[in-house]
Amino acid sequence: MLTLATDLEALTRFGRALADPIRCRLLLALRDAPAYPSDLAETLGISRTRLSNQLACLRDCGLVVAVPEGRRSRYELADARLGHALDDLRTTVLAVAADKTCPDAETKGCC
């Protein structure tokens, strides 16, 4: 059984990962299928350096893993259940007043 501290840490890491639009797009892309960094950079329209930083964050958060394939690495979600969680979050309807913003919307950072 997980402890409350472990549960909170896991949710905090997931929340921080989702706080950045590029990381969200990465997670959604990897939800569809594993991919190589060059393909992800092209799909997302970002530099490889920026992509590398975001993938490192997601790896540090424990959400993605790099699978070595010869001289390359393929990235995928660390657990298939993350894809289901992303789908559940994506399809959940949140009631937010149009004139309200998230208090932490200006806070950026990584896990």
UniProtKB/TrEMBL annotation:
Classification via Pfam families: HTH_5 (PF01022)
Start and end residues of each HTH arsR-type domain: 4-100
Q: Which CDD domains match?
A: HTH_ARSR
Taxonomically, the superkingdom here is Bacteria
Task: Output the InterPro entries linked to this UniProt entry.
Answer: ArsR-like_HTH (IPR011991), HTH_ArsR_DNA-bd_dom (IPR001845), HTH_Metal-responsive_Reg (IPR052543), WH-like_DNA-bd_sf (IPR036388), WH_DNA-bd_sf (IPR036390)
Q: What is this protein called?
A: Metalloregulator ArsR/SmtB family transcription factor
